[in-house]
Amino acid sequence: MDYGKHMPEVQSKAAEAEASRIAVFVHLARDKDAAWWSAARAAGTLVGINDETPYGYGRAARMGCDVTFSRSHSEGPLVKFVRLGLRVILGFDVIHAYRQLHVMSQADIIWTHTESQFLAVAAVLRSHPNPPLILGQSVWLFDRWPGLSSLRRALYRRLIQKVDILTVLSDDNLAVARSLFPGKRAERVPFGIASENSVEPAPRAYKPVRVMSLGNDRDRDWTTLVHAARGQDDIEVAIFSGTANRKLIENVPNVTIGLVKTNAELHERMAASTVMCVPLLENKHASGVTVIQEAILAGLPVIATDIGGLRGYFGPDEICYVPVGDVRALQDAILTAGREPERMLAMARLAQERMRANGLGAESYVRRHVEISRELLAERQRDPIPAGSSSTTQGAAVYSTSGNALHSPKP
Predict the structure, then answer these.
(1) Hey, what domains does the chain have and what are their CATH numbers?
(2) Least CB-packed of 223, 249, 259, 360 within 10 Å?
(3) CA 192 to CA 253: how far, in whole Å?
(4) CA 136, CA 150: separation in Å to the nearest integer?
């Protein structure tokens, strides 16, 4: 065979593959700097099942993307005061986004993790002659929308017009997004964590029933959980949260509130618990879905409030659902978990199988971002943009496709 004869074809395919790579800028909150994330994960202080890069977005490097993360910048007390003041007034961190402007403007598309980031990106790019595409993921915005002032609603509507697609984590949020912005493309992208490793579920016949509850989300319903445990000697509840009000457990000796400081401690606590309880207030954003997935991967059965679109992730055969704010139903579910360990074991196994069968995890979550990005870029190519655009990423921190380190590309 004349291998030289086929070299132009091979080189052409290689060049085509390289040309099809997407320059992605991931804009995250200032306290989610990729370098900090990596260091905290290596130290074991980034509690939870976390990927090598923030929320797994670095996986896109293996999917044909050059991924750049936003960076934190040092600042003095006065600048910090001004930045945080503007964040309070506007509802998003415009200064943090502005500091990324040079780098983000060179991307093909910008990914954001919450509305706070995509609103800031839209604001700083509002007068850019040839802005990158914006994938704006929303978490809490549509829950809060009815309570926003008319000025904020007007501002946010204007900025959302700069966003190319709205993504949400639940069907509930999707319905609201499409209702508020009927002319804007909106899609549900199921959130997932690193799901490659799991613990085989095993019977958990602990007495008293050991309930673990975890999370800092604003929509945790600690009050209902504490009331469900009050006066129940056969229930023992350990809440791990930095936001739970400690006054709730005054004169409730069988409930404690603390913090999990390391992953080793988290795994130890999960292994010693009967059930993970995720009590929730009314919400539309699948609150608690991260903790639910972490518990399922740890082989731990789950009791959760039936709200926020969680059934779009797991069914009633996989999670024990209870109504919002129903103390008696939650109490009964906890006691049943103690009396029927085999039933809870079966639910834990089905929940793990659901994650495997549906491909629920960080890999599919990030892959859908890549697919959407390619769809949007193809649409833009069909509707040509002005000359002078750039899809190269220079002078920025790029996630390497061959390792974990961040590196600066050559000019």
Answers:
(1) 20-193+361-407 (3.40.50.2000), 209-358 (3.40.50.2000)
(2) 259
(3) 36
(4) 22
